[in-house]
């Protein structure tokens, strides 16, 4: 325990009371003594097909013996093109050029650079501002933190990269406890973008970046009409629309991508997490043909069109893991299974609304949030809750006082019931 510094963790507290996993299988983690802990968080939104899938392990093992590494600058390998083809089949029509990276944070910063390069290629280079949203999470690199709408992330690092302005978040009391999309306020909230356009000038705005459902800050499902209005405004004002689908992608909201669930097509989609079922770090940015072709065609013959890339872009083992993962999603019809489990999950969680400490239960697809009432110090009750859940045998992510339930799509009705039972018992035992 001497030498590691854990991310997003109170390190002294962890060392005093370590919470470790030793192994995992299907919907279960096991601690170092072999105690089962039900994984109602899909790891960290990463593992919809369940843990330790043999097919993925075999594909990675075989790949590492055949071709362990290829640089992606001026060189490539066939599986990266195969993966791009497979992803293009899942994505909304027209969003079919893929740029590979290794994390959600890298995907967002890459998307931001693509937006800037696109406008520069069109000789519209004054468009450098980004519009984002309160309660947004776009990873931890400097671009993503500039977009972030989470107070602590912004407070510590948000001011270094400037040029991001924020719309209001999409939580409204009028839509309290709604399952799926709320009916109220969608168009009005989206018109925040119009106000920012009027204030800053469309000619200065490169892109509007949103999570279709804000995930990490507690599953804020956009009200009806919200995403449609953002699309309308972006199109009318020459602003690119970017959906950060790092959590929403790969069936989490019902369809392949949330773009398809909500019927709104952005110009760029970022994805990560479930792309390899969590087995190997991998992420991607899907770009519309128009954006891609504009950038590539603006460069002189033989010139590099986009000055960006990573050593690990399209790593062969990651591509092999992703291809095996997409096979599982297809062969097991896993997104359909998630769609079928969703009402069972959301109904069962809804029963927690009656508990005095529960402020709200909301969700869509296989993504839900049980928000606890604050005890006066925001996040304190949630922090205690997450520690006790581990002890009670349940894993999920908490942010502040929000417990985010995002089970693997292989979850059974019995495991849903177990999840709700542990949540209920643990909430009842929290200090009132
Ligand atoms: C919407 C969104 N974007 C970006 C990220 C950052 O991804 P990573 O942690 O892989 O860098 C996350 C992580 O949770 C996320 O939820």
Task: Explain what the structure shows.
The protein is an alpha/beta fold and 432 residues long. It has two domains: 138 residues, Aspartate Aminotransferase, domain 1 (Alpha-Beta Complex); 275 residues, Aspartate Aminotransferase, domain 2. Helix content is 40%, strand content 16%. The chain has 15 helices and 15 strands. The strands form three sheets. A seven-stranded mixed beta sheet has the order 4-10-9-8-7-5-6, with helices on both faces. It has a four-stranded mixed beta sheet with strand order 1-2-3-13. The chain has a four-stranded antiparallel beta sheet with strand order 11-12-15-14, with helices on one face. A hairpin with a 2-residue loop joins strand 14 and strand 15. Helix 3 packs antiparallel against helix 12 and helix 14 packs across helix 15. The longest helix is centred in the first third of the chain and has 18 residues. The radius of gyration is 21 Å and the shape is globular. The two termini are 34 Å apart. The model has no long low-confidence stretch (mean pLDDT 97). The structure holds pyridoxal-5'-phosphate (PLP). Pyridoxal-5'-phosphate (PLP) binds next to helix 5. Keywords: Aminotransferase, Pyridoxal phosphate, Transferase. Pfam families: Aminotran_3. It comes from Actimicrobium antarcticum. InterPro entries: Aminotrans_3, Aminotrans_3_PPA_site, PyrdxlP-dep_Trfase, PyrdxlP-dep_Trfase_major, PyrdxlP-dep_Trfase_small. Its cofactor is pyridoxal 5'-phosphate.
């Amino acid at each position: 325990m001497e030498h590691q510094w854990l991310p997003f963790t109170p390190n002294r507290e962890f060392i005093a009371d370590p919470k470790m996993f030793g192994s995992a299988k299907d919907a279960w983690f096991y601690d170092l003594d072999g105690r089962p802990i039900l994984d109602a968080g899909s790891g960290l939104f990463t593992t919809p097909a369940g843990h330790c899938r043999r097919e993925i392990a075999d594909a990675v093992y075989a790949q590492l013996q055949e071709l362990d590494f290829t640089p992606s600058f001026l060189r490539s390998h066939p599986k990266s093109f195969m993966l791009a083809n497979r992803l293009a089949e899942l994505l909304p029509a027209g969003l079919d050029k893929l740029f590979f990276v290794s994390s959600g944070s890298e995907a967002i910063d890459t998307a931001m650079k693509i937006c800037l390069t696109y406008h520069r290629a069109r000789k519209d280079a004054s468009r450098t501002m980004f519009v984002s949203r309160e309660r947004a999470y776009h990873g931890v690199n400097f671009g993503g933190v500039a977009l972030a709408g989470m107070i602590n992330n912004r407070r510590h690092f948000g001011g270094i990269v400037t040029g991001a302005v924020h719309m209001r978040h999409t939580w409204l009391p009028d839509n309290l406890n709604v399952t799926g999309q709320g009916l109220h306020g969608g168009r009005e909230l989206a018109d925040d973008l119009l106000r920012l356009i009027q204030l800053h000038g469309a000619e200065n705005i490169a892109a509007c970046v949103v999570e279709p459902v804000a995930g990490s800050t507690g599953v804020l499902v956009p009200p009806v009409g919200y995403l449609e209005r953002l699309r309308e405004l972006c199109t009318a004002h020459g602003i690119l629309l970017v959906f950060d689908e790092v959590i929403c992608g790969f069936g989490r909201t019902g369809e392949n991508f949330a773009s398809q669930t909500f019927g709104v097509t952005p110009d760029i989609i970022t994805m990560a997490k479930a792309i390899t079922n969590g087995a190997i770090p991998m992420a991607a940015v899907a770009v519309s043909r128009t954006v891609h072709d504009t950038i590539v065609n603006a460069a002189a013959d033989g010139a590099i069109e986009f000055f960006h890339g990573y050593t690990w872009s399209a790593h062969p083992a990651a591509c092999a893991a992703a291809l095996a993962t997409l096979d599982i999603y297809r062969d097991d019809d896993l997104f359909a299974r998630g769609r079928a489990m969703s009402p069972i999950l959301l109904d069962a969680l809804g029963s927690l609304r009656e508990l005095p400490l529960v402020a709200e239960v909301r969700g869509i697809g296989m993504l839900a949030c049980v928000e606890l009432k604050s005890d006066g110090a925001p996040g304190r009750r949630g922090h205690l809750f997450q520690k006790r859940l581990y002890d009670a045998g349940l894993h999920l992510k908490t942010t502040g006082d929000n417990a985010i339930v995002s089970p693997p799509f292989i979850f059974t009705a019995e495991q849903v019931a177990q999840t709700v039972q542990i949540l209920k018992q643990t909430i009842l035992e929290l200090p009132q």
